[in-house]
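Please produce the structure of this protein holding GLP.
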Amino acid sequence: MKIIIVKDQQQGGKKALEVFQAALNQGAEVFGLATGSTPETTYTEIVKSDLDFSQKISLNLDEYVGLKADNPQSYRAYMQQHLFNFKQFKRSYLPQGDAADSQAEIQRYNDLLAQYQVDLQLLGIGKNGHIGFNEPGSSFTEQTRKVKLTPSTVAANARFFASKEDVPQYAYSMGIGSIMRAKSILLEAFGVTKADAVAAMVEGPVTPDCPASILQQHPDVTVILDQAAASKLSR
Ligand code: GLP
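Below is the modeled complex.
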């Protein structure tokens, strides 16, 4: 893992832009994208930049089950608001939250991932070490599936909803097996609330208790941290 420590999330976004630029220079065609507050500055920098994704493919990690694409809390709406309204990709895919047939939707997404190998996968990390919506205990080999969110993740995401009761209990998520197939991975974490998860990911044992710890076994991972998120690393 290559660890880059920056002053704050703003600087993190600028560093991440450099990683996207380098990927494009190396011919990347398929970008795995993430949501949450963590990648916001990265998307701001991409939007301000002259990077051109108009012939590229994007595939998002996850989506809440049950939300329509135009629901403001859906990850599709997040992506429109933060990136796609300003930078268009040739095609952008997310799981469809309100798909009538869950199994067919999971199959559709896995077929897309089989068709398009991700060149650069952007990731955040949950306070419990989850990536995508792969909560502790998730298998390291699974592909896209429907997952039940843990109470801690529901509580953490409640800030985006009117009340905790409104937070969906299930999501579609690329599995850890899908994430590990990406040729390169960029994980960002900012703030002291992520410090324990970051320490477990980088220095702890590789264990499903901390899903992100599997990234120690990926050959090309860059981690961008602010000082607070890096504060529990011993080295
Ligand atoms: C959600 C998302 C993850 C994200 C995590 C952390 O659970 N599914 O992809 O990394 O939250 O979110 P934030 O960046 O807002 O801290």
